[in-house]
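Researcher: I'm preparing a figure for a lab meeting and need a structural model of a single chain. I don't have an experimental structure, so a prediction will have to do for now. The sequence is pasted below. Please return the structure as tokens so I can convert it later.
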Amino acid sequence: MKTTFSSKLFNLLFIITFFTLINFSNANANTLLPGDEEYEIGIEKAPAPIGGNEAISRNINYPQTALRSKTEGKVYCLALINQNGEVDDVKIVKGLGSGCDEEAVRAIKKTKFTPGHNLGVNVKAKLALAVQFKLP
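Model: Understood. Here is the structure written out token by token.
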């Protein structure tokens, strides 16, 4: 079987990329996004919104742009919750657009959370959230 130069180059690039990703993932095993290294993922008790997910839903004002364009769906976010249960930052993992992303961030930041616990101590923690936008 004859191998062309382009397939050899592709295989070499694939191997280099694979090992680079492995080294990168091992160096940052507990982080999902840059700047959130001090927040824990695997903890005994994860943070939770006080009043449940309905508390976030109550804080949402459906964006006018989304109403006009009839946009529905979920905005996937990563919330960084400090040891007092306050939201330090919210990062969009997968957005919806039409103003829904910004509204999801605003609603999450307005919500109070129970802090995460690890070994009996309140810790900074990451919490993945999906904020649902459904037309009234």
